[in-house]
Amino acid sequence: MAHSAIAPRILCIGIPVRDLTFRVEAVPERGSKANATHLAEICGGNALNAAIAMARLGGRVAFAGPMGDARETSSGFILERMATEGIDSTQIVRIPGAATPVSAIIIDASGERTLTIFRDPTLWTVQLPGADELLANCQAVLVESRCGVFCIDLCTEARRRGIPVIVGVDRAMALTDGLLTTASHLLFASEQLQETVGITEDGEALKRLANLTPAFLAATRGPRGAIWLNEGRLEETPAFPVEAVDTLGAGDVFHGAFTLRLAEGGDVREALRFAAAAAALKCTRHGGGLAAPQRIEVEGFLHGVP
Questions:
Q1: pLDDT for residue 306
Q2: Cβ-based burial of 242 (10 A; exposed 0-12, middle 13-18, buried ≥19)
Q3: What is the β-pairing status of strands 102-107 and 113-118?
Q4: Residue 22's closest CA among 295, 288, 279?
Q5: Which ranges of the chain have pLDDT less than 70?
């Protein structure tokens, strides 16, 4: 697979999270107790998982967004992990008195996850650094859909400069959300696409949404692959069949791999297949976004698939 000899610089915008993951045989019933078979402390958050994936796949990644007070402990753990992955964290803004988000995640024997998270509302008051600083030498911007409230102006400026803005959507969006029309690419999860549009069939939901935005539109559907619009025609990118043990972060890895391949010059069809391979490999191992594969793994995997 050909890609640029100079790794593209990609800006990720989001809110990092400290994840506590518990593996169980089955999710406990309400009011009951269950023993976990494994506990792991990892870093997460949609954009950060995607950033880790891109860094491992060969991108030069910078991260911008809010984190809690410099005195609280969760942020220190996350920043140390980011440094290990080679992610530039100098544009993260610390919010005095706020807490960095923490989540508790239960992963059952099928690999499916159940999640509870606390995000301090103060984090949404962040003021990011200026566009000239954040967008310098930037080939793409990847944004969590929930972060439009503090980055819509930056994304608008990125588009004005011809920089693609990819939005990873893992929650229902308001049809008046500025990111819908600012983004160049919108990557939904199937459930959130249907909730956003109010239609329970992915293809029809994509077509309806296309009346509201000029962005490229796609929806991921787990083992059923991705569905997307190609100049008004529905197409599908199959998922690679694997034995999934942990789906946590798979969508984020997909978004990161798609963004990187696009920034390297790949077309959307190639980027979707590359992303599907990266997400499939992630699902075969525990660790959330920290289970994202290396570039050599993805290329070897694709080389061995007819």
A1: 60
A2: middle
A3: antiparallel
A4: 288
A5: 1-5, 306
